[in-house]
Write a structure and sequence with these properties.
Blueprint (H helix, E strand, L loop, with lengths): L3 H31 L7 H28 L3 H41 L26 H13 L6 H11 L2 H7 L6 H15 L2 H14 L10
Amino acid sequence: MLSLDDVQKELTTLKRRRGVIKGSLTRIRKFIKDFNAKEQPISLLEFRQDELPQINKKFDDVQSQIELISCEFEQEEEERNNFETEYFNLRSQIQELVNMEKANISSGSHNLSIGATYAPNHALLAPISIPTFDGNIQEWESFYDCFNAIVHRDDSYSKSQKFYYLRTSLKGQALEMIKSIPMTDANYDTVIQRLKRRYDNKSLVIQSHIRALIDSPRVDKITII
């Protein structure tokens, strides 16, 4: 029979292994965030997609061993739930990206096959960078006006494409609000409305400006000689 010290050592080792496995999900999340369809092939997404079930199996094996010897039942259940939520979110995001890029390729091939010469206006101009928004309510109006002009009102993009561009333009608190929502056509309007309900609030913007003025450093009176 294992002593208490032996159990604790085994638990520590298993938790370290779990940490390494969770790190694999973190790397895949970063890969998805940084993925550039113009520079990287879809096959890279598909390879990552194939890797996810293997990571999930490794986690399940280690987590099951931890749950057998740990007394922190609620904490371990939360660990499993958090991992599974992240795992399925990543699988969903990768699948949406793969579907979107394959649809783009298919659409492009169809246009070439029928000798189409039309191209949307944005393809004739130098690329315009979409600004980022981190949840600072004072910057929402300028961000959304720009996003609206470049992406939202452009009918040449599908809603899932617009969702992808929106997601990659958000960070911080704003990204946290929507990152768990799968990138699908159906969810795009929902996400836009959620962000507008939170940040498109004139009274909160005014209050934010007032607080900024109150908190700004005091300028001492300058005496001109």
